[in-house]
Amino acid sequence: MSVPAAPLDAPPGQPRKAAMAAWIGSALEYYDFFIYGSAAALIFPKVFFDESDPATATLLSLATFGVAYAARPIGALFLGHFGDRLGRKKIMVFTLILMGLSTFLIGCLPTRAQVGGLAPVLLVLCRVLQGISAAGEQASANSMTLEHAPSNRRGFFTSFTLSGTQGGQLLATLVFLPVAALPDDQLLSWGWRVPFWLSVAVAVVGYVIRRTLEETPAFTRQAATEGVAKLPLAVLFREHWADVLRVVAGALIASVSTIFTVWALAYGTSDSVGLSRSQMLWVGALANLVALAAIPAWATLSDRIGRRPVYLIGAAGSAVLMFAYLWAISTGSYPLVLLFGILAFGVVYSAANGVWPSFYGEMFSTRVRLSGMAIGTQIGFAVAGFAVTFAAQIAGPGGDDWSSVALFTSALCLPPVLAALTARETHKVPTELLGERVPGEAAQREAVTA
């Protein structure tokens, strides 16, 4: 696929470098995030919550998966503020270090059998640190790539953030496959720790790339001319409150991902279905492999026909295909599970996933873009994170009421559809005019600029 030339005021090669930095960082963030999800479904009920009956232990373990999502809106407030005041690069480096450290520490934690109730407390604390890191990662990476990208290819370049997310999920799954195949005594003693320790290698590579990245031309120009906002959040909620609400509603689409990668994994390997851990992990691996190609393809299409139609295909299509995927699992037919898993998550969900970085980012002006994306997405993602816990309750005592879980997930796809229908189409708006509503608006904001 050919890559267009950089904007005239961007250093040569920076759009490509920004896209690669976003890809590497997001891959680490979501490698870390989703090895936790796999462990929460398969390992942690037996390691940190083994004093409970199996159903309760699974519920408690999945609740810790959601804890990071609860922490993300809080992290978004702080990281969004500093990202719009200090720049995108500083936040990207900070989030990378924090995620790598907190994930490594999870692999070092003692189990409940070793230290009692302190073990799950330490697990939750590390999970909170992961959530704070993730709160600023995608928003800063999306802002960095969008503001470096040529105006007519913003969809393509920003999609690298989400390609990195899928790459991280794929890497997490591939690392977990041999681990999950270990005998239970080795898996539950030391085997589960290895994927968490390996995050250090990815963190080092990402750090080196991000340290050499230039700040974006749009942020540099903003700081040099009008100045940065003293209180970005005040500007955001005064001028862009409706767009923040749209992003919150749109971000609920992430429920499809959490249900697919965590609840469906636990359901498929349950006694009522009987698929193996390796079989279900391979579904995720192949779906994410397909998504690596589908995401930039959908994003490129959005550069031609617009963000809204592509996003709507992903949101509405995911609502329908979640029924097909969970039904396929209920049948125990692995070919059906594989087919609908790849179609639902690898192809259709990728339409919304590949477009939202540009779609959401283009709703805001440079001075509040990072905080607008961070706060809007992380509030919506918080709901998505706990969707797994709700699904575990909705599925009933036996954990096998898949149709209720599918209906619940589909209902969470409705707000994203409504958000897209009410949003402006922005794919042809020049980068410097994004988020501006009336001529001379910048001159009216001097009271809140430095």
From TrEMBL:
The keyword Nucleus does not apply. The chain crosses the membrane at residues 30-49, 55-79, 91-112, 190-209, 247-268, 280-298, 310-328, 334-352, 373-396, 402-421. It comes from the Bacteria. Keywords: Cell membrane, Membrane, Transmembrane, Transmembrane helix, Transport. Residues 18-428 form the Major facilitator superfamily (MFS) profile domain. CDD domains: MFS_ShiA_like. InterPro entries: MFS_dom, MFS_sugar_transport-like, MFS_trans_sf. GO terms for molecular function: transmembrane transporter activity. It is a multi-pass membrane protein. It is found in: Cell membrane. GO terms for cellular component: plasma membrane. PANTHER family: SHIKIMATE TRANSPORTER (PTHR43045). This is MFS transporter. It comes from Streptomyces albiflavescens.
